[in-house]
Design goal:
The complex is a heterodimer of chains A (102) and B (812).
Chain A: E1 4-9, E2 17-22, E3 28-32, E4 38-42, E5 56-58, E6 61-63, E7 70-72, E8 88-89, E9 91-94, E10 97-101
Antiparallel strand pairs in A: 1-10, 2-3, 3-4, 4-8, 5-6, 6-7, 9-10
Chain B: E1 4-9, H1 13-25, E2 30-36, H2 48-52, H3 66-71, E3 75-78, E4 82-86, E5 91-94, E6 99-101, E7 104-107, E8 111-113, E9 126-127, H4 132-144, E10 147-151, H5 155-166, E11 170-175, H6 187-199, E12 203-206, E13 210-216, E14 219-225, E15 230-232, E16 235-238, E17 242-244, H7 247-251, E18 260-262, E19 273-275, E20 280-282, H8 290-304, E21 318-320, E22 328-332, E23 341-347, E24 352-359, E25 362-369, H9 375-384, E26 421-423, E27 428-429, H10 430-440, H11 445-452, H12 462-473, H13 495-504, H14 510-516, H15 528-539, H16 553-557, E28 560-561, E29 567-569, H17 580-592, E30 597-600, E31 606-611, H18 616-625, E32 638-643, H19 657-667, E33 677-682, E34 696-701, E35 704-709, E36 721-726, H20 729-746, H21 753-760, H22 762-771, H23 773-787, H24 793-799, E37 810-811
Parallel strand pairs in B: 1-2, 1-7, 2-3, 7-19, 9-16, 10-11, 10-16, 11-12, 18-20, 32-33, 33-34
Antiparallel strand pairs in B: 4-5, 5-6, 8-17, 13-14, 14-15, 21-22, 22-25, 23-24, 24-25, 26-27, 28-29, 29-31, 30-31, 34-35, 35-36
Helix pairs in contact in B: 1-8, 10-11, 10-12, 13-15, 17-18, 18-24, 19-20, 20-22, 20-23, 22-23
The chains are: A mainly beta (102), B alpha/beta (812).
Chain lengths: 102, 812
């Protein structure tokens, strides 16, 4: 059974940045955009498993630090012409607090 | 809001490229209707020659399928020739009665082949070489007839002749001029080309004027020349030139002058009507090559999108022939003349001819036959107007000298098999690149990089990829202009323009730059943000905001990310010197944090590889106890100053190279730069510190030091160039500091010193650093000012808890 769990205050993640969350199913990367939207993805690039949490966030995307693939934060899809998808994790923001559904 | 109506007349390469560009930047602005006279979707006209030669099929060369039109909501009327534009009612009317209203109209009606005004030019079997129908007619003729005559020995004529020959016909090329392709080649190259085509079985009649075409039962049977000679002909292909097709526009009362006249925004004299492609005349010139048309399309799209940016200022073009196995290239003023100098290499036996034409110290033209490996390089210099004084002595021998790593030193793409690896970084072979170019309709280096990853990592195979592109698409491939190339897809501004704006307008943070320079994306991308951050902090030290989120992870985490997501820690060892106490602290840290790999680096220090990110601050804290600083092995910054033992111990040493190295490293501590910077100091000319391949190399002599700059031991070995000789340690610091500051102020992000110096020329660097003593001191002082108050990033992390957040893992 998955359930919503409290993660941290929004301020704990820098704008246009991310933090890593340890979980039983592997590391999760939680991202914050310039407009304070929050997204969560498995911390593995579909290309060669690079840690997306370490990439540069721009618009609604993150660029993997290893080989520069761009991944859509909302869907986990690689931006064309690359093909691949990173699983998403449900995330929500309530009163400045981030919750993950795990 | 109701969408505006855009009607495009002409379903060819220029018109559809403009539509594609428009959809990229303003996908929802227009309801688009396209009229095409041909019954096909948009195809790659440049590849008609390979289709004729049987190397590709008509389906292979389709650029935009009918599904593409549907997917983008475009109404396509294929096979509907537009016959009238009603500018009052803003309406176009096609032959088949279809009408469409427009708010904006884009004319891309292309050109028509010139048909010589001679008797018999309307006989069956007399055609031009322009579209799929012409190719089909030629293929059909080749199956039934024997004698083909191609009138015109230019680019198109020769490609047609070659294709017909491959289809089994007897082909005679008739040309008025004394040698082939006189618009692109000089006499020597033209004759060499003729020789190799004759070896393939083509026949030539030069300096011949065609008088009339003779027929029999309505079909052509012979060509008669003005001198009375007659040759048999079952098929006559007229390839004597093209003429802009502007009748439609002219009849609509739009100003034309041998083409539709447009301004720098591709607008005609009717402000609602734009025009691009072969049908236009821009500043008195019409272009028949695809690259300029694409530039026009891009500019036109920005204006159709109401962005109002971008001007088309004309194009410098180059030519390649698409006849498999023949390499020729020409650009600019390839004939030369009294006002110009020529550098010529001619190897008759080896069938290689190269002519470079210079005016003063600039390359103004090139004509290459047999070896076109350096075509892109020459063309780039020609377009950039680069001063070539400092490389003039080896200009002829091209860009490829020693040490191109990663593809077995292969410099000739043509000589490579399909399975040969082109890109060693990403394991891409030639066949895969060729396939992607053909199947995806790629025209640019960038396109190949995105689709295949070839040349997208270290870039050493860029030249090869450019050659492959050029051989697949011929003249359609034009290397980008390095000076005006946009930084990335987020902006149309070049690196140089952005640097200039940051300096002139005193911008201090990234959001301001993006707002003022009208970035297209809300917060840039992974390539422009690090560049902007560097430009800001290097231009306005102690003032500009340094944004960690705009730095690549290595600079954010002060360590080098590895393929498994772990990091490497490299402590600073100035001049490669260390102490037993430091080594003990490093050994202790390595054991405590279970570092799996300990390695000595090429820069004379120790690399601890495989450290978990969350352990980094703890490890730094331990190292800081022993006074150990960050080695910046991870940054676009000062890396190492490598030294030899020098006069301290060495029996040959003339200078104290270790001490000099330490002084340099101390001075440059914490220096960010466009790319990494490595130095070396050798104590004598034996040069054990390998100073000849460093960004700054110092070589000790009895009488002082020699300074070398812009060397590189990486992807491509580049030997450093001699800058000057100095007498004292203080001068080494001042000259080296001034050079590096010049590079810091003027270099483009990710441009190594070698590329910077190639771009601006060594003479310029000497003028600024060696000859101008006051300027040199100012540069040096600006460097020292920028580096004032240096704080070690590892120590900062240890001391300030909030900086450690980057390294801490959250849990739920």
């Amino acid at each position: 059974m998955s359930e919503w769990k409290k993660l941290a205050a929004l301020e704990e993640i820098p704008r246009l940045g991310s933090r890593v969350v340890e979980s039983a199913g592997g590391d999760i990367a939680v991202f914050r955009t310039a407009e304070d939207q929050v997204y969560a993805l498995h911390d593995r690039c579909p290309h060669k498993g690079g840690p997306l949490s370490q990439g540069i966030v721009h618009g609604g995307r993150v660029t993997c630090p290893l080989h520069g693939w761009n991944i859509e934060l909302a869907s986990g899809e690689a931006v064309a012409p690359d093909l691949g998808r990173t699983p998403c994790v449900e995330v929500k923001l309530e009163n400045g607090v981030i919750y993950l559904r795990v | 809001m109701q969408k505006m109506k855009l009607v495009v007349v002409g379903n060819g390469m220029a018109g559809m490229r403009a539509v594609e560009e428009l959809l990229k930047i303003a996908p929802d602005l227009y309801r688009i209707t396209v009229f095409g006279a041909e019954p096909h979707p948009n195809y790659n006209r440049i590849l008609l020659s390979p289709v004729l030669a049987g190397e590709q099929t008509a389906d292979d060369i389709v650029l935009n399928s009918r599904e593409w039109y549907d997917a983008n909501g475009i109404t396509l009327h294929a096979g509907a020739r537009v016959t009238k534009i009603d500018r009052v009612r803003r309406l176009v009317i096609a032959e088949n009665g279809v009408e469409a209203e427009y708010d904006r109209l884009l004319l891309a009606t292309g050109s028509n082949p010139v048909m010589l005004p001679i008797p018999g030019n309307d006989l069956d079997g007399v055609i031009g070489f322009r579209d799929i129908a012409d190719v089909e007619a030629m293929v059909a003729a080749a199956a039934r007839h024997r004698h083909a005559v191609v009138i015109g020995g230019g680019l198109l004529g020769l490609e047609a002749a070659n294709g017909l020959k491959l289809r089994g016909m007897d082909v005679v090329v008739v040309h008025r001029h004394a040698w082939l392709m006189e618009r692109q080649l000089d006499r020597v190259a033209g004759c060499m080309l003729q020789q190799s085509l004759e070896d393939r079985g083509l026949k030539f009649l030069l300096e011949k004027d065609t008088g009339q075409l003779l027929g029999e039962e309505g079909r052509v049977r012979a060509v008669r020349f003005r001198d009375g000679q007659e040759i048999p002909a079952d098929l006559v292909v007229m390839a004597v030139g093209i003429r802009p097709n502007y009748r439609l526009a002219e009849e609509a009362g739009i100003h034309c002058n041998r083409g539709i006249v447009v301004n720098d925004t591709l607008q005609t004299f009717d402000p609602r009507i734009y025009a691009v492609g072969e049908c236009v005349v821009h500043r008195g010139v019409s272009y028949g090559l695809v690259a300029p048309l694409f530039e026009q399309a891009r500019v036109c799209a920005t204006h159709l999108a109401n962005f109002g940016i971008g001007r088309y200022a004309g194009s410098v073009t180059s030519t390649k022939l698409k006849v498999t196995g023949i390499d020729l290239f020409s650009a600019g003023d390839f004939m030369g003349g009294e006002h110009a100098d020529e550098i010529v290499l001619h190897d008759r036996q080896g069938s290689v001819y190269k002519k470079l034409v210079l005016e003063g110290d600039r390359l103004v033209g090139a004509c290459l036959y047999g070896d076109t490996a350096d075509a892109a390089w020459y063309f780039q210099m020609l377009k950039d107007g680069r001063d070539v004084r400092d490389i003039r002595d080896h200009l002829m021998f091209g860009q490829n000298h020693l040490g191109d790593a990663g593809h077995k030193g292969q410099t000739q793409a043509a000589a490579m098999g399909d399975s040969a690896e082109v890109c060693g970084c990403n394991g891409v072979c030639k066949g895969a690149i060729v396939k992607a170019i053909k199947e995806k309709g790629l025209f640019t280096l960038d396109g190949v990089r995105r689709h295949t990853k070839a040349s997208a990592s270290c870039g050493s195979c860029t030249g090869l990829v450019e050659q492959i592109l050029a051989s697949c698409i011929g003249g359609a491939y034009q290397p980008a202009d390095s000076k005006d190339k946009p930084m990335c897809g987020c902006t149309d501004h070049s690196h140089g323009e952005v640097r200039q704006a940051i300096r002139d307008r005193h911008y201090l943070d990234i959001p301001t730059v993006m707002r003022e320079l009208r970035w297209r994306t809300p917060n840039g991308c992974a390539s422009c943000r690090p560049a902007l951050n560097y430009y800001l902090i290097s231009t306005w030290p102690h003032e500009a905001v340094d944004d960690p989120q705009s730095r690549f992870i290595n600079e954010r985490a002060h360590a080098n990310i590895q393929k498994d997501g772990s990091y490497s820690v490299v402590p600073r060892m100035m001049g490669g010197l260390t102490t037993p106490a430091e080594l003990r602290a490093i050994a202790d840290a390595a054991e405590k944090y279970k570092v799996p790999t300990v390695k000595v680096t090429g820069g004379q220090r120790i690399d601890l590889l495989g450290v978990k990110k969350e352990d980094l601050p703890k490890m730094w804290a331990d190292l800081a106890q022993a006074g150990i600083l960050s080695g910046h092995a991870y940054g676009k910054s000062l890396r190492t100053v490598k030294t030899c033992v020098g006069a301290e111990h060495c029996r040959f040493g003339t200078q104290l190279s270790m001490a000099m190295g330490v002084k340099l490293e101390q001075m440059l501590l914490g220096m960010w730069s466009p790319h990494k910077v490595k130095l070396a100091v050798s104590g004598c000319p034996r040069n054990c510190a390998e100073a000849g391949i460093k960004d700054v190399g110092v070589i000790g002599l009895e009488s002082g030091y020699e300074l070398y700059v812009a060397g590189n031991g990486g992807i491509k070995t580049e030997v450093a160039q001699f800058l000057c000789k100095v007498a004292s340690d203080e001068e080494v610091l001042e000259y080296a500091g001034a050079f590096l500051q010049l590079y810091r102020e003027e270099g483009y992000y990710l441009e190594r010193t070698v590329h910077y110096v190639h771009r601006v020329g060594l003479d310029y660097v000497k003028a600024r650093v060696v000859e101008d003593a006051a300027g040199r001191r100012e540069l040096h002082e600006r460097l020292l000012y920028a580096l004032q108050g240096y704080r070690d990033p590892w120590l900062e992390c240890v001391q300030e808890p909030k900086l450690r957040r980057e390294f801490e893992i959250l849990s739920i």
